[in-house]
Amino acid sequence: MPPPDPMIFELAVRAGSTALIVIAATLAIERFGPRIGGSLAGLPIVIGPGFFFLIRDHGAAFAADAAATSLFSLAATEAFLLGYCLAAQRAGPFLSLAAAILAWLTVVPFVAAMPPMPFLGAAVFTASGLAAYLLVRAFAKVRASARGGRGLAPLLLRGLLAGLLVAGVTVLSAQLGAAWSGLLVTFPVGFTVISVTVHQRAGSVAAIATLNAAMLGTFSLAIFSFGLAVGIPLLGSTAAYGLALLGGLAATSFLTLWSRQQPGGTG
Question: Rounded distance, CA 154 to CA 149, Å?
């Protein structure tokens, strides 16, 4: 039996991991509330395999530059989340999604022009993440509540859709350089599906609360990317990848525990 095609294997892993995080985060939102679900949405389950394959296929230096660039891309993700939250106060799921994608597209050209400097990227991301979080808290109606969903089958279908979107992004990024690979590997595919799913299943208030929590949850992704960008030149790709993954998981665990301590943290 011939070995599986590496590209097919990569697509399957990345599509499957995306579907898993979308389904798990949505179920967590409905069971434990938007704060915990939004925190779990920041797990590096999606970008982790993406960078594993970047290291394998393109080498350590390429992956380090892509990781540094992804920090700027995560600032665009915060713009995506902010755009959705602000639009969802008055609009439905798909108009809100259009506003979110427009916000992402507006920011991406600026972050794509940034040099792959991890400390600068970390500073830009931190400033944008905190600003987006505080803006939503100030201007949007945020309530940590959720109600039951509409069955598992539609959610599984949406998880599959998220996986297929990631597969398409993977194919595109394979044709591009380190900068655009770093941008595309952190495109908010998971948040695209989570936002619309929660909005439709639990309403706009729950969607805004979830994405507001996800603004902090993305700090786990930033820690992972920063760990790779700084760690690869110092420690090598294997050690840096392991430590970056542990750092991202630790950040998600901390945010989840912190969310449980907040009033209404479990819905």
Answer: 10
